[in-house]
Design a protein that fits this description.
The chain has one domain. About 50% of the residues lie in helices and about 0% in strands. The protein has three helices and no strands. The protein is elongated. The mean pLDDT is about 95.
Length: about 70
Amino acid sequence: MTRNVGTLDRILRAGIGIVLLALVFIGPQTLWGLIGLVPLATAFVGFCPAYRLLGLCTLARDQRKA
């Protein structure tokens, strides 16, 4: 797995993941908030399988492996 998620993308994913997970504990208190684990995991690992399928990469050019 080569990284394909850049720094800003990782920060946004982590924020969205935390907000979605908060829905489990506050707000409507449904288990749908567990979907927030997906963006949190991709932010932590730095790899997004959907990006690989679509051929996307948000890493800066100097951070990419050749």
